[in-house]
């Protein structure tokens, strides 16, 4: 594997007195899709929040291109080239689709030569073009998720963090959204996928990390890890995955 | 005829109230920050303006320029020093912090300027009027109304279709999501408060040209601004303008029913709208 684009080193995070992460070592290279699986409360979202600068972590715990960026403010991390599709989408309610997207365009990091433009995004999700003047809250869940992904892409990320983008969506819509991921990563964008659906996560990713109670319990190439090994790492016991 | 006159005078009075209300529409309506010093800042700027005018014999329009710039500076300081520390989903911390600041400001103004009422010398324009059919209309109130209209239109366009406006709306909708989209919320909030207090520079000059100011008067401007924003609908700039008109007209008509009833009439209209259309005239849902 080439040198990691984004990595964490012994990352420790806490909410007040509660320690949520116990020394996470994670890395992802350009163009890779890495899945992050684990039960509720395992620390997946906390890891993403720590990378985005929403939680206080030491500078050396998160590195981008080998440079320490831990604890950098979220808006600066975005400018450095890391964007997130937050859990629950978190669109700007009351604003139109196009205005939601423009906020990202306005504050994007250095636009890559092969960067994301509105036209390229409309090619990926044609619905966004039709609905651009519509207030986001009147879209369906799947359409809102596309706005959220589009908004993150227009920040021109080199690393895209996706937090449970299939949650609450119809299987058909989930399929449509997941089909868009390879065309995002083939241009070199690294994608971190937090996903509840283990089968989907395994099928979509190159590598995966399984988290359990704030630690990485298993990591390896998605195609090579057995379901039994995932089941054990997921629940921490010897349960099999149904 | 006195009712038509009441209506016209009410609209003109609404022009002044709109200048109080615009900054409030931005801070309370959009950012959900409660700034109790809103009215005190009008008075502070007005008193500074009056002192400038008498010390350096400046005319009202030069005073206006100075006060707008000074207002922006005060806005930046206010946001950086106090409001950025209390901004968030809960409006209570900003209310408590600015409530304390309001009391301190009023007492500081009393110390510096005493409790005397003062006004700004504006020359002939203050008393000039023209005939409109059977009615006489003051030139100054018309200037105030036009200024308010231009400020409202300008602010609305800024909020709707500029980078800054989008960032402010985004940060107001979801501050964390905005930060995760590259917006620096503190910078955006600082800009917004600078604009809000700069607009109070206009209000300060026109208030002290039209009538008088004294250190304890800020409570009136504060309550009129709050009422206008709520009548018009939270988050709507033109709503705040309409709310200011509704307030001005009800006060003016009420005053003609009974001179003691004017201010109360405005409050009653505010309460009626709060009961019948709590989202405000232009508010959604």
TrEMBL record, chain B:
Its main location: membrane. GO terms for biological process: amino acid transport. It comes from the Bacteria. InterPro entries: ABC_transp_permease, BCAA_transport_permease. It comes from Metarhizobium album. GO terms for molecular function: transmembrane transporter activity. The keyword Transmembrane applies. The chain crosses the membrane at residues 6-29, 41-58, 64-83, 135-159, 188-209, 221-247, 259-276. It is a multi-pass membrane protein. It holds the Pfam family BPD_transp_2. GO terms for cellular component: plasma membrane. Signal peptide: none annotated. It is found in: Cell membrane. The keyword Transmembrane helix applies. Belongs to the binding-protein-dependent transport system permease family. LivHM subfamily. Keywords: Amino-acid transport, Cell membrane, Membrane, Transmembrane, Transmembrane helix, Transport. This is Branched-chain amino acid ABC transporter permease.
